[in-house]
């Protein structure tokens, strides 16, 4: 009996071991299924993120192109302005040089004009003095001639 009991206990242990093994297999399969499910979910999310990143990269590339076009447009607007400004500045510099030269010429001409006016006024004064002197001389000459004529007239009257 002891052997039968031992056999029966061994069978029970075997069955229990099989059940444990089956449970372990089921748990392993369950864990493996859960692991695979998680892996698939991770892969799916990874693909979603990759798609989102690609979409963002596409938009970023489009925006980069738009910004480059805008920058070119701005530079195109700035360049003609810079050229025009440079041309106008050069013209202003040329006009400034001309004005400086003309200013110097004006100052020189003004000095010449003042000198000419002064010389003109001096000559007018001299002329006025000479005319005054001439008038005095003419008056004196007429007076002397009249005196002479009167003397001659007296002499003639005394002869007659």
Automatic annotation (TrEMBL):
Coiled-coil residue spans: 92-126
A Gene Ontology term for the protein's cellular component: Golgi apparatus
Primary location recorded for the protein, binned into one broad class: cytoplasm
Pfam family, one: Transcrip_act
Cellular compartments annotated: Cytoplasm; Golgi apparatus
Keywords: Coiled coil, Cytoplasm, Golgi apparatus
Keyword Transcription regulation: no
Domain of life: Eukaryota
Entry similarity comment: Belongs to the GORAB family.
Full protein name: RAB6-interacting golgin
Source organism per UniProt: Davidia involucrata (Dove tree)
């Amino acid at each position: 009996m002891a052997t039968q009991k031992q056999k029966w206990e061994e069978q029970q242990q075997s069955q229990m071991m099989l059940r444990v093994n089956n449970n372990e297999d089921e748990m392993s399969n369950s864990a493996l299924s859960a692991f695979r499910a998680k892996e698939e979910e991770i892969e799916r999310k990874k693909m979603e993120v990759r798609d989102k990143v690609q979409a963002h990269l596409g938009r970023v590339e489009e925006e980069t192109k738009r910004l480059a076009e805008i920058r070119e447009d701005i530079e195109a607007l700035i360049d003609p302005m810079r050229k025009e400004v440079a041309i106008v500045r050069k013209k202003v510099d040329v006009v400034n040089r001309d004005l400086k030269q003309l200013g110097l010429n004006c100052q020189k001409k003004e000095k010449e004009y003042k000198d000419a006016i002064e010389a003109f006024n001096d000559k007018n004064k001299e002329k006025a003095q000479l005319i005054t002197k001439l008038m005095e001389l003419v008056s004196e000459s007429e007076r002397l001639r009249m005196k002479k004529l009167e003397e001659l007239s007296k002499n003639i009257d005394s002869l007659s």
